[in-house]
User: Fold these one by one.
Assistant:
Number 1:
Amino acid sequence: MRNSSLLINLAKAIGRLVVSYKEVQNLAGYTTLINEMDEVLYDLSNGCYERVMVTQDVSINDKPAGKSNTVKKHSTKGAQIVFSDDIIFEDIPIYSPNGDELISKMNFKIQPGMHLLISGPNGCGKSSLFRILGELWPAKSGKLTKPPVEKVFYIPQRPYLPRGSLRDQVIYPHSIEDVKRRGITDEDLANIMDNVKLSHVVARETDGWNAHNDWADVLSGGEKQRMAMARLIYHKPLYAILDECTSAVSVDVEGHLYTYMKE
């Protein structure tokens, strides 16, 4: 009886080891991603930008312990950055992280209340302007005047939908505590959804605002983009950067959204 009990426990232990192997693999994947993100953030803070397509090994002597010494990046002095309510590009060249020059010198000024449409062929540097404004891409020289990060709201073509309730989709990245602190009620959120023609989404959910779903699968492409516009109305930033954010929305609703935003 003792031997059979030991053998049974041994078999169970081996089974647990086999099952945990997959969990360890998942953990290894997550830790690798976090390590890569940590290295990228360190490089950005030091004005170093990794080359994705063109590789060149260089040695970085001031890399902290635990960081890889073999990297593929180039350094830049960077543009002078000034914080203001205006957005001003003064003699700022636009380079991709690969070092490709898209525009030699960019100059323009936008003030609160102005509306600007940027158009052009693929690869000409439209989205690059936003990345430089958000300090995701390097501004090698010139002077960049921009508002603080909390006054600018970026909406991409494919908005991010976090895990959580329907309410979380509208208030992202705020929490419920932030909503209460601002004095926003579910009725206010319902008015926002009505403005972006999404009131039917709240009505069709059994739990209403507290409904939990995989929203990336539940919502259609146009509904996702209108959800991002609902976030814009909720946050009311000084500037909104809209990067083809209504490409999947019908023309009539698209016209309504832009008219409402301008008003």
Number 2:
Amino acid sequence: MERAAIVTAGALLVLALAAGSAGAVSTPAYITAAVADSARPEADKARDAERKPAETLEFAGVKPGDEVLELAPGKGYYTRLLSAVVGPRGKVYAIASPPRPNAAPDAPPPAAAVQAIAADPHYANVKVDVVRISQVRLPGNVDVVWTSQNYHDFHNLTDTDALAIDKAAFNHLKPGGTYFVLDHSATPGSGFKDTSTLHRIDEEAVKKEVESAGFELVGESDALRNKEDPRTAKVFDPSIRGHTDQFILVFRKKT
């Protein structure tokens, strides 16, 4: 594809500044309200400075009424935010993995946190399915497929592969729908070799892989970049945890 067609966060900023005479550009009210929602736990709010949810959600283009398929929601940091943004006319399908066969008997189920969110009436538009990503079945196609800080782990699964997940995302999207991928950066040219060791992945390798599933890259954001991160330490290392260099990519399902 022609990279000149890609709209970057920097380009968007230039356009916004050029339009300054027409009035200031501000974050949509529904995103501001979602971030400020008093129902969000303090632990989530404490992470906002590092995760920049308003910038991320706005760049992804999620809006009221959207239906979102969230892959690997973890503890639900973005599940709550997505629920608030799409509102009562929208839906969030959170896909959580079943427990691993070798998990400790007393280990909490991976889906426990996000299931608790779905059980809260405040998040009535959230539905959780505990199923392997390769086995996801939805009642219809969605507007957005979302995965945050998880794509590298798609390369660590034993029951499927990342390209199969990309193809499933393509099939679950409406024509022109968005595939949002945010993850920890590995060193350029490293490909997929650091996915299970450092829990990082090479951005360019992700682009090529997702595009091979039929998507086109339409957006890149530098909102979570950290040039001080050498990208050689595990993302859980105290020296860099919470401050890793991260890339944000937006792909579109070709129509």
